[in-house]
Design a protein that fits this description.
heterodimer; A: alpha+beta; Thrombin, subunit H; 6-stranded antiparallel barrel; 2 helices; about 25% strand; globular; B: mainly alpha
Protein backbone atom coordinates (compact mmCIF):
# COMPACT_ATOMS: atom_id res chain seq x y z
CA UNK A 1 0.00 0.00 0.00
CA UNK A 2 2.78 2.36 0.96
CA UNK A 3 4.65 1.36 -2.20
CA UNK A 4 1.52 2.06 -4.26
CA UNK A 5 1.16 5.48 -2.70
CA UNK A 6 4.81 6.18 -3.25
CA UNK A 7 4.73 5.07 -6.88
CA UNK A 8 1.57 7.14 -7.47
CA UNK A 9 3.28 10.21 -6.05
CA UNK A 10 6.39 9.51 -8.08
CA UNK A 11 4.42 9.13 -11.32
CA UNK A 12 2.55 12.34 -10.57
CA UNK A 13 5.79 14.25 -10.03
CA UNK A 14 7.41 12.77 -13.16
CA UNK A 15 4.38 13.80 -15.24
CA UNK A 16 4.45 17.29 -13.74
CA UNK A 17 8.18 17.56 -14.43
CA UNK A 18 7.64 16.48 -18.04
CA UNK A 19 4.91 19.12 -18.43
CA UNK A 20 7.14 21.77 -16.85
CA UNK A 21 10.01 20.81 -19.15
CA UNK A 22 7.72 21.00 -22.20
CA UNK A 23 6.94 24.68 -21.60
CA UNK A 24 10.45 26.09 -22.35
CA UNK A 25 10.80 23.61 -25.22
CA UNK A 26 7.58 24.93 -26.76
CA UNK A 27 8.59 28.55 -26.19
CA UNK A 28 12.03 28.02 -27.75
CA UNK A 29 10.41 26.24 -30.69
CA UNK A 30 7.98 29.14 -31.22
CA UNK A 31 10.87 31.61 -31.20
CA UNK A 32 13.12 29.56 -33.49
CA UNK A 33 10.53 28.27 -35.96
CA UNK A 34 8.79 31.61 -36.52
CA UNK A 35 7.19 32.30 -39.01
CA UNK A 36 6.97 28.91 -40.75
CA UNK A 37 6.31 26.56 -37.81
CA UNK A 38 6.96 23.57 -40.08
CA UNK A 39 6.64 20.87 -37.39
CA UNK A 40 3.59 22.43 -35.76
CA UNK A 41 1.77 22.96 -39.05
CA UNK A 42 2.79 19.50 -40.26
CA UNK A 43 1.26 17.96 -37.16
CA UNK A 44 -1.90 20.03 -37.60
CA UNK A 45 -2.20 18.87 -41.21
CA UNK A 46 -2.57 15.32 -39.90
CA UNK A 47 -4.48 15.83 -36.65
CA UNK A 48 -6.96 18.48 -37.76
CA UNK A 49 -8.60 16.50 -40.62
CA UNK A 50 -8.83 13.38 -38.42
CA UNK A 51 -10.42 15.29 -35.51
CA UNK A 52 -12.66 17.10 -37.96
CA UNK A 53 -13.81 13.84 -39.54
CA UNK A 54 -14.60 12.12 -36.26
CA UNK A 55 -16.19 15.31 -34.93
CA UNK A 56 -18.40 15.53 -38.02
CA UNK A 57 -19.72 12.03 -37.37
CA UNK A 58 -20.62 12.66 -33.73
CA UNK A 59 -22.10 16.11 -34.27
CA UNK A 60 -24.16 15.43 -37.39
CA UNK A 61 -27.63 15.56 -35.70
CA UNK A 62 -26.97 19.03 -34.27
CA UNK A 63 -25.40 20.30 -37.46
CA UNK A 64 -28.31 18.86 -39.48
CA UNK A 65 -30.81 20.78 -37.30
CA UNK A 66 -28.70 23.96 -37.62
CA UNK A 67 -28.43 23.60 -41.38
CA UNK A 68 -32.20 23.03 -41.67
CA UNK A 69 -32.86 26.17 -39.65
CA UNK A 70 -30.44 28.09 -41.88
CA UNK A 71 -32.16 26.73 -44.97
CA UNK A 72 -35.61 27.81 -43.71
CA UNK A 73 -34.27 31.27 -42.82
CA UNK A 74 -32.55 31.70 -46.18
CA UNK A 75 -35.62 30.54 -48.09
CA UNK A 76 -37.82 33.02 -46.26
CA UNK A 77 -35.42 35.82 -47.18
CA UNK A 78 -35.19 34.91 -50.87
CA UNK A 79 -38.15 36.98 -52.05
CA UNK A 80 -36.88 40.21 -50.48
CA UNK A 81 -33.35 39.48 -51.67
CA UNK A 82 -34.57 38.84 -55.21
CA UNK A 83 -36.34 42.19 -55.25
CA UNK A 84 -33.23 44.02 -54.04
CA UNK A 85 -31.03 42.18 -56.56
CA UNK A 86 -33.31 43.15 -59.46
CA UNK A 87 -32.91 46.81 -58.56
CA UNK A 88 -29.12 46.36 -58.37
CA UNK A 89 -29.09 44.53 -61.71
CA UNK A 90 -30.99 47.36 -63.40
CA UNK A 91 -28.50 49.87 -62.01
CA UNK A 92 -25.55 47.72 -63.09
CA UNK A 93 -26.96 47.30 -66.62
CA UNK A 94 -27.41 51.05 -66.89
CA UNK A 95 -23.69 51.51 -66.19
CA UNK A 96 -22.49 48.52 -68.20
CA UNK A 97 -21.79 50.26 -71.52
CA UNK A 98 -19.87 53.12 -69.98
CA UNK A 99 -17.82 50.55 -67.98
CA UNK A 100 -17.09 48.51 -71.12
CA UNK A 101 -15.88 51.62 -72.91
CA UNK A 102 -13.72 52.60 -69.88
CA UNK A 103 -12.16 49.10 -69.75
CA UNK A 104 -11.29 49.20 -73.44
CA UNK A 105 -9.83 52.69 -73.12
CA UNK A 106 -7.83 51.53 -70.11
CA UNK A 107 -6.48 48.50 -71.99
CA UNK A 108 -5.49 50.72 -74.91
CA UNK A 109 -3.63 53.11 -72.62
CA UNK A 110 -1.91 50.20 -70.81
CA UNK A 111 -0.74 48.82 -74.16
CA UNK A 112 0.53 52.23 -75.20
CA UNK A 113 2.62 52.74 -72.07
CA UNK A 114 3.52 49.03 -71.87
CA UNK A 115 2.07 48.13 -68.46
CA UNK A 116 2.03 44.42 -67.65
CA UNK A 117 -0.67 43.68 -65.15
CA UNK A 118 -0.76 40.64 -62.93
CA UNK A 119 -3.95 38.83 -63.66
CA UNK A 120 -5.12 35.53 -62.25
CA UNK A 121 -5.09 32.68 -64.71
CA UNK A 122 -7.21 30.52 -62.49
CA UNK A 123 -9.52 30.89 -59.54
CA UNK A 124 -10.44 28.19 -57.07
CA UNK A 125 -13.80 28.44 -55.37
CA UNK A 126 -13.87 27.42 -51.72
CA UNK A 127 -16.39 27.34 -48.89
CA UNK A 128 -15.57 28.86 -45.53
CA UNK A 129 -15.63 25.96 -43.07
CA UNK A 130 -15.00 27.83 -39.84
CA UNK A 131 -14.73 31.47 -38.96
CA UNK A 132 -12.20 31.41 -36.13
CA UNK A 133 -12.21 35.10 -35.28
CA UNK A 134 -11.18 35.25 -31.66
CA UNK A 135 -8.74 37.20 -29.48
CA UNK A 136 -6.77 39.59 -31.69
CA UNK A 137 -6.65 37.08 -34.52
CA UNK A 138 -9.04 36.73 -37.37
CA UNK A 139 -8.52 33.46 -39.23
CA UNK A 140 -10.79 31.16 -41.11
CA UNK A 141 -10.51 27.72 -42.67
CA UNK A 142 -11.51 26.97 -46.25
CA UNK A 143 -12.25 23.53 -47.67
CA UNK A 144 -9.63 23.58 -50.45
CA UNK A 145 -5.96 22.79 -50.05
CA UNK A 146 -2.77 21.62 -51.71
CA UNK A 147 -4.73 19.03 -53.69
CA UNK A 148 -6.49 21.90 -55.46
CA UNK A 149 -3.24 23.67 -56.21
CA UNK A 150 -3.39 26.18 -53.38
CA UNK A 151 -0.25 27.29 -51.56
CA UNK A 152 0.74 29.66 -48.81
CA UNK A 153 0.60 33.33 -49.79
CA UNK A 154 -2.28 33.17 -52.26
CA UNK A 155 -4.95 35.84 -52.17
CA UNK A 156 -8.51 35.10 -51.13
CA UNK A 157 -11.26 37.35 -52.50
CA UNK A 158 -15.02 37.49 -52.25
CA UNK A 159 -17.29 36.95 -55.25
CA UNK A 160 -17.42 40.67 -55.88
CA UNK A 161 -13.59 40.64 -56.16
CA UNK A 162 -12.96 42.26 -52.82
CA UNK A 163 -9.93 41.10 -50.89
CA UNK A 164 -10.70 38.99 -47.81
CA UNK A 165 -7.28 37.69 -46.78
CA UNK A 166 -4.18 35.67 -47.59
CA UNK A 167 -3.47 31.96 -47.09
CA UNK A 168 -1.06 31.42 -44.19
CA UNK A 169 -0.99 27.63 -44.10
CA UNK A 170 -2.09 24.88 -46.44
CA UNK A 171 -3.04 21.30 -45.64
CA UNK A 172 -3.89 18.77 -48.29
CA UNK A 173 -7.63 19.44 -48.08
CA UNK A 174 -7.90 22.70 -46.15
CA UNK A 175 -6.21 26.07 -45.86
CA UNK A 176 -5.98 28.55 -43.03
CA UNK A 177 -6.58 32.11 -44.19
CA UNK A 178 -5.56 35.26 -42.34
CA UNK A 179 -8.33 37.81 -42.77
CA UNK A 180 -7.62 41.52 -43.23
CA UNK A 181 -8.93 42.25 -39.73
CA UNK A 182 -6.22 40.08 -38.13
CA UNK A 183 -3.78 41.98 -35.95
CA UNK A 184 -0.86 40.41 -37.87
CA UNK A 185 -2.10 41.71 -41.22
CA UNK A 186 0.23 44.34 -42.66
CA UNK A 187 -0.04 44.81 -46.41
CA UNK A 188 1.00 47.39 -48.98
CA UNK A 189 -1.87 49.45 -50.37
CA UNK A 190 -2.49 52.20 -52.87
CA UNK A 191 -5.19 54.83 -53.04
CA UNK A 192 -7.09 54.17 -56.25
CA UNK A 193 -6.58 56.76 -58.98
CA UNK A 194 -3.41 58.17 -57.42
CA UNK A 195 0.24 57.32 -56.79
CA UNK A 196 -0.17 57.43 -53.03
CA UNK A 197 0.98 54.22 -51.34
CA UNK A 198 0.93 53.13 -47.74
CA UNK A 199 0.33 50.20 -45.45
CA UNK A 200 -2.83 48.67 -44.03
CA UNK A 201 -2.93 46.78 -40.77
CA UNK A 202 -5.78 44.97 -39.06
CA UNK A 203 -6.81 45.34 -35.44
CA UNK A 204 -9.57 42.77 -34.96
CA UNK A 205 -12.31 45.20 -35.95
CA UNK A 206 -14.41 45.52 -39.09
CA UNK A 207 -12.28 48.48 -40.08
CA UNK A 208 -8.55 48.36 -40.64
CA UNK A 209 -6.13 51.26 -40.20
CA UNK A 210 -3.89 52.70 -42.87
CA UNK A 211 -0.78 54.83 -42.56
CA UNK A 212 2.88 55.30 -43.55
CA UNK A 213 1.97 57.07 -46.80
CA UNK A 214 4.70 57.94 -49.28
CA UNK A 215 3.17 61.40 -49.51
CA UNK A 216 3.30 62.98 -46.05
CA UNK A 217 0.89 65.72 -47.13
CA UNK A 218 -1.82 63.21 -47.96
CA UNK A 219 -4.92 63.27 -45.79
CA UNK A 220 -7.42 60.48 -46.27
CA UNK A 221 -11.12 61.15 -46.59
CA UNK A 222 -14.33 59.20 -46.71
CA UNK A 223 -15.10 57.43 -49.98
CA UNK A 224 -11.57 56.97 -51.34
CA UNK A 225 -11.05 53.49 -52.69
CA UNK A 226 -8.15 51.43 -51.36
CA UNK A 227 -6.50 48.64 -53.34
CA UNK A 228 -3.46 46.41 -53.04
CA UNK A 229 -0.10 47.65 -54.19
CA UNK A 230 2.92 45.74 -55.42
CA UNK A 231 5.49 48.03 -53.78
CA UNK A 232 6.67 45.39 -51.32
CA UNK A 233 6.59 42.67 -53.98
CA UNK A 234 4.39 40.44 -51.87
CA UNK A 235 0.93 41.09 -53.26
CA UNK A 236 -0.24 41.71 -56.80
CA UNK A 237 -1.53 45.22 -57.36
CA UNK A 238 -5.05 46.30 -58.12
CA UNK A 239 -7.18 44.13 -55.87
CA UNK A 240 -9.93 46.15 -54.27
CA UNK A 241 -9.83 46.19 -50.46
CA UNK A 242 -12.50 48.68 -49.42
CA UNK A 243 -13.54 52.29 -49.08
CA UNK A 244 -12.05 54.72 -46.60
CA UNK A 245 -14.37 55.63 -43.76
CA UNK A 246 -12.36 58.58 -42.46
CA UNK A 247 -8.75 59.79 -42.33
CA UNK A 248 -7.28 56.52 -41.05
CA UNK A 249 -9.84 53.74 -41.28
CA UNK A 250 -10.89 51.48 -44.14
CA UNK A 251 -14.06 49.44 -44.30
CA UNK A 252 -12.94 45.83 -44.85
CA UNK A 253 -14.78 42.62 -45.57
CA UNK A 254 -14.86 40.15 -42.69
CA UNK A 255 -15.32 36.40 -43.12
CA UNK A 256 -18.46 36.28 -40.96
CA UNK A 257 -20.29 38.19 -43.71
CA UNK A 258 -19.59 35.65 -46.45
CA UNK A 259 -19.77 31.88 -46.85
CA UNK A 260 -17.89 31.30 -50.10
CA UNK A 261 -14.69 32.78 -51.49
CA UNK A 262 -12.34 32.57 -54.47
CA UNK A 263 -8.61 31.94 -54.27
CA UNK A 264 -6.54 33.67 -56.97
CA UNK A 265 -3.74 31.73 -58.60
CA UNK A 266 -1.35 33.89 -60.61
CA UNK A 267 0.75 33.03 -63.61
CA UNK A 268 4.54 33.51 -63.70
CA UNK A 269 4.38 37.04 -65.14
CA UNK A 270 2.15 38.20 -62.33
CA UNK A 271 3.80 36.08 -59.68
CA UNK A 272 3.90 37.72 -56.31
CA UNK A 273 5.76 35.05 -54.36
CA UNK B 1 -25.81 -3.72 -23.75
CA UNK B 2 -24.15 -2.97 -20.44
CA UNK B 3 -20.79 -3.37 -22.10
CA UNK B 4 -21.70 -0.85 -24.80
CA UNK B 5 -22.90 1.63 -22.18
CA UNK B 6 -19.72 1.07 -20.16
CA UNK B 7 -17.54 1.65 -23.23
CA UNK B 8 -19.53 4.76 -24.14
CA UNK B 9 -19.12 6.10 -20.61
CA UNK B 10 -15.41 5.44 -20.83
CA UNK B 11 -15.12 7.40 -24.06
CA UNK B 12 -17.59 10.12 -23.09
CA UNK B 13 -14.97 12.68 -21.89
CA UNK B 14 -13.12 12.33 -25.20
CA UNK B 15 -16.34 12.59 -27.20
CA UNK B 16 -17.56 15.65 -25.30
CA UNK B 17 -14.26 17.42 -25.94
CA UNK B 18 -14.35 16.54 -29.63
CA UNK B 19 -18.02 17.51 -29.79
CA UNK B 20 -17.41 21.00 -28.41
CA UNK B 21 -14.35 21.54 -30.59
CA UNK B 22 -16.17 20.47 -33.76
CA UNK B 23 -19.20 22.64 -33.03
CA UNK B 24 -17.12 25.77 -33.47
CA UNK B 25 -19.21 28.74 -34.47
CA UNK B 26 -18.47 32.43 -34.81
CA UNK B 27 -19.05 34.44 -31.62
CA UNK B 28 -20.50 31.61 -29.47
CA UNK B 29 -17.69 29.08 -29.79
CA UNK B 30 -14.92 30.59 -31.92
CA UNK B 31 -12.26 28.05 -32.93
CA UNK B 32 -13.93 25.56 -30.57
CA UNK B 33 -12.56 27.23 -27.43
CA UNK B 34 -15.39 25.76 -25.36
CA UNK B 35 -13.56 22.42 -25.54
CA UNK B 36 -11.16 23.89 -22.97
CA UNK B 37 -13.90 23.25 -20.38
CA UNK B 38 -13.85 19.42 -20.59
CA UNK B 39 -10.09 19.53 -21.20
CA UNK B 40 -9.61 21.32 -17.86
CA UNK B 41 -12.24 19.31 -16.04
CA UNK B 42 -11.02 15.85 -17.04
CA UNK B 43 -7.37 16.73 -16.56
CA UNK B 44 -7.44 18.49 -13.21
CA UNK B 45 -10.80 18.00 -11.49
CA UNK B 46 -11.81 14.46 -12.42
CA UNK B 47 -8.63 13.07 -13.95
CA UNK B 48 -9.18 10.37 -16.54
CA UNK B 49 -6.44 7.98 -17.55
CA UNK B 50 -4.62 9.05 -20.73
CA UNK B 51 -6.71 12.20 -21.01
CA UNK B 52 -3.82 14.63 -20.50
CA UNK B 53 -2.30 13.90 -23.92
CA UNK B 54 -5.72 14.24 -25.50
CA UNK B 55 -6.19 17.56 -23.72
CA UNK B 56 -2.78 18.71 -24.92
CA UNK B 57 -3.76 17.83 -28.49
CA UNK B 58 -6.95 19.86 -28.30
CA UNK B 59 -5.17 22.86 -26.79
CA UNK B 60 -2.84 22.56 -29.77
CA UNK B 61 -5.78 22.40 -32.20
CA UNK B 62 -7.37 25.50 -30.65
CA UNK B 63 -3.99 27.26 -30.93
CA UNK B 64 -3.59 26.25 -34.54
CA UNK B 65 -7.00 27.53 -35.53
CA UNK B 66 -6.53 30.79 -33.65
CA UNK B 67 -2.97 31.18 -35.02
CA UNK B 68 -1.75 31.51 -31.43
CA UNK B 69 1.48 29.49 -31.70
CA UNK B 70 1.13 27.05 -28.78
CA UNK B 71 -0.24 29.62 -26.32
CA UNK B 72 -2.97 27.47 -24.72
CA UNK B 73 -0.73 24.41 -25.02
CA UNK B 74 1.95 26.11 -22.91
CA UNK B 75 -0.60 27.37 -20.40
CA UNK B 76 -2.09 23.89 -20.10
CA UNK B 77 1.36 22.37 -19.48
CA UNK B 78 2.09 25.07 -16.91
CA UNK B 79 -1.12 24.32 -15.00
CA UNK B 80 -0.42 20.60 -15.26
CA UNK B 81 3.02 21.14 -13.74
CA UNK B 82 1.65 23.39 -10.97
CA UNK B 83 -1.05 20.87 -10.16
CA UNK B 84 1.43 18.00 -10.04
CA UNK B 85 4.12 19.63 -7.95
CA UNK B 86 2.01 20.83 -5.04
CA UNK B 87 -0.92 19.78 -2.88
CA UNK B 88 -1.74 23.14 -1.37
CA UNK B 89 -4.31 23.92 -4.05
CA UNK B 90 -6.05 20.63 -4.69
CA UNK B 91 -8.12 20.99 -7.85
CA UNK B 92 -9.97 17.75 -7.18
CA UNK B 93 -11.35 18.79 -3.81
CA UNK B 94 -12.17 22.41 -4.51
CA UNK B 95 -15.84 23.37 -4.42
CA UNK B 96 -18.02 24.03 -7.48
CA UNK B 97 -16.02 21.56 -9.56
CA UNK B 98 -12.99 23.85 -9.23
CA UNK B 99 -14.80 26.55 -11.14
CA UNK B 100 -12.59 29.30 -9.72
CA UNK B 101 -9.52 27.41 -10.81
CA UNK B 102 -10.94 27.17 -14.29
CA UNK B 103 -11.69 30.90 -14.23
CA UNK B 104 -8.08 31.49 -13.21
CA UNK B 105 -6.90 29.25 -16.06
CA UNK B 106 -8.84 31.03 -18.80
CA UNK B 107 -8.56 34.40 -17.02
CA UNK B 108 -4.76 34.33 -17.17
CA UNK B 109 -4.92 33.30 -20.82
CA UNK B 110 -7.40 36.00 -21.78
CA UNK B 111 -5.53 38.64 -19.78
CA UNK B 112 -2.26 37.87 -21.57
CA UNK B 113 -3.97 37.81 -24.95
CA UNK B 114 -5.69 41.10 -24.20
CA UNK B 115 -2.54 42.96 -23.28
CA UNK B 116 -0.60 41.43 -26.17
CA UNK B 117 -2.75 42.88 -28.93
CA UNK B 118 -4.62 45.54 -26.99
CA UNK B 119 -7.63 47.22 -28.51
CA UNK B 120 -10.95 48.00 -26.87
CA UNK B 121 -12.74 45.67 -29.25
CA UNK B 122 -10.35 42.86 -28.36
CA UNK B 123 -10.83 43.61 -24.67
CA UNK B 124 -14.63 43.46 -24.96
CA UNK B 125 -14.48 40.24 -27.01
CA UNK B 126 -12.18 38.56 -24.50
CA UNK B 127 -14.33 39.72 -21.59
CA UNK B 128 -17.41 38.32 -23.29
CA UNK B 129 -15.68 34.99 -23.90
CA UNK B 130 -14.42 34.85 -20.32
CA UNK B 131 -17.94 35.41 -18.91
CA UNK B 132 -19.53 33.03 -21.42
CA UNK B 133 -17.08 30.21 -20.67
CA UNK B 134 -17.37 30.74 -16.91
CA UNK B 135 -21.16 30.61 -17.14
CA UNK B 136 -21.08 27.47 -19.25
CA UNK B 137 -18.57 25.69 -17.02
CA UNK B 138 -21.16 24.54 -14.46
CA UNK B 139 -23.78 23.15 -16.90
CA UNK B 140 -21.16 21.48 -19.11
CA UNK B 141 -19.45 19.80 -16.15
CA UNK B 142 -22.87 18.78 -14.80
CA UNK B 143 -23.67 17.16 -18.16
CA UNK B 144 -20.24 15.53 -18.11
CA UNK B 145 -20.94 14.14 -14.63
CA UNK B 146 -24.35 12.88 -15.66
CA UNK B 147 -23.04 11.28 -18.85
CA UNK B 148 -20.17 9.50 -17.17
CA UNK B 149 -21.81 8.46 -13.90
Amino acid sequence: MINDKLSYKLVRIIKAAAAAAAVPVFIIYVIIAKPDYAIMNGLAHIVLPVAHGIGSVITWPIRAVGQSADWVRETSQLRAENKALRVKLDEALANKYSCDIAILENQKLENEINIKRASPYKTVIADIQFDDSVFHHNNFLINRGKKDGLTKGMIVVSFDNRMVGTITDCGSQFCRVRALADADTNIAIRISGSDISGFLHGNGKSKASIGFFNDTQFVGRKGLKVMTSNISGVLPSGIYIGDMLDEKNVDILRPNNISRVMVLQYNDIGSYK
Amino acid sequence: MYKIVAILKQFMPFLITLFLWRLAIYFWNPAGVLCLIPVFYYTFVRPIKNFALFGLLFCFLVDYRCDLALFWTCLYCLFYAINGFQKYIDFQHTGNNAMYMFMAFIGIGFFLLTIYGFSWMNFVNNLWLFIWMSVLYTPITAIDNWATS
